Amino acid sequence: GAVVSQHPSWVICKSGTSVKIECRSLDFQATTMFWYRQFPKQSLMLMATSNEGSKATYEQGVEKDKFLINHASLTLSTLTVTSAHPEDSSFYICSARDIQREYNEQFFGPGTRLTVL
Amino acid sequence: GQNIDQPTEMTATEGAIVQINCTYQTSGFNGLFWYQQHAGEAPTFLSYNVLDGLEEKGRFSSFLSRSKGYSYLLLKELQMKDSASYLCAGMDSNYQLIWGAGTKLIIKP
Questions:
Q1: The dihedral sign for the CA sequence A41, B42, A29, A73
Q2: What is the DSSP string of A48-103?
Q3: Residues of A with CB below 8 A from B41's CB?
Q4: pLDDT at position A42, please?
Q5: Which residues of B touch A108 (CB under 8 A)?
Q6: Region class of A41: left (phi > 0), else alpha (psi between -120 and 50), else beta
C-alpha cells in the first residue's frame, strides 16, 4: 500500500514553454501533498505544501506564479512550471501523507526529471 | 531556527556495521524519520522514532534521544546495495518535515 505515482518520469522542453507534472496517490487518500525540488548532489528542498481544496502554501523564495499547484482531488495534485528556463532544470519529487497511517510518514513518487533547453 | 545536521559522506566495508548520526533542532517535535535515496531515485521510508530508544527493523535500526536532539541509523551486515544517501528528517509541531542534506554512504568490497 501507500503508492504514489508521478507523470511524466522525465521531460525535455524548450525555454519559455510550460510543463505540467502530475502526482497521484494510488491506494490512499492524501489530503496533503508536498512538492520538492532536488538539484544534483543536494538535499530535498520543499517548494510547497498542497492541501486538497485549498490554495497551496509556498516556501519562502518559491514563486507561486511560476510554479502553479492544483490539488483538485484527494488523489491528485499537479505542478505546472510556467515559462520554464534552463535554471528550472531539476528533479521534481512529490510526496503524499497518508493520514490513516500511524506515523504520518510521507510516501514519495518516483520523481520527474525536467530538462529545459 | 530549525536545523538538521548529518555527515556529508561515510565509507564502510561490505559485511561491516556503520552508524550514521543526526542532530536536530525543530520547532516542536513530532518524530524523526530516516529515508534512503539511491542516486536518481526518490527517497524511500526506512524508520520513524518519536520515543527515546532503539527501533530495530531487520538489518537497520534507528535510535532517538529527545533530550539530546540526537538520532542515529545503524546498518548491519552491509551489502553493496546499501550504497545510497541516507536522509534524516525531523517533523516539527506543524507536521512539516525538516530535511538534512543527507549522508552519502559508500560501501567498498
A1: positive
A2: EEEETTSPPEEPTT--TTTEEEEEEETTEEEEEE-S--GGG-EEEEEEEE-TTSSS
A3: 110-111
A4: 81
A5: 42-44
A6: left
Question: With bands split at pLDDT 50, 70 and 90, how would you rate the model's confidence at A11?
Answer: very high
Closest CA to A4 of A104, A98, A100, A95: A95
A105 → closest Cβ in B45, B96, B99? B45
The amino acid that residue B77 corresponds to is E
Q: Predicted confidence band at A1 (pLDDT cuts at 50, 70, 90)?
A: low
pLDDT digits (tens, 9 = 90+) for B35-94: 999 988 889 989 999 999 999 999 999 999 999 999 999 999 999 999 999 999 999 888
> Which residues are bridge partners to B67 per DSSP?
none
If one counts every other C-beta atom within 10 angstroms of the C-beta of residue A16, the result is: 10
d(CA B39, CA B82) in angstroms, rounded, equals 12
Which residue's C-alpha cell is 507536521? B95
In chain B, what residues touch A57 (CB-CB under 8 Å)? none
User: Distance from first CA to last CA of chain A, Å, rounded?
Assistant: 37
Query: Least CA distance to B84: which residue of chain A?
Result: A41
**Could you report the per-residue pLDDT of A37-94, keeping only the tens digit for each?**
998 878 889 999 998 888 899 999 999 999 999 988 889 999 999 999 999 999 999 9
Structure-block grid coordinates of residue B55: 527501533
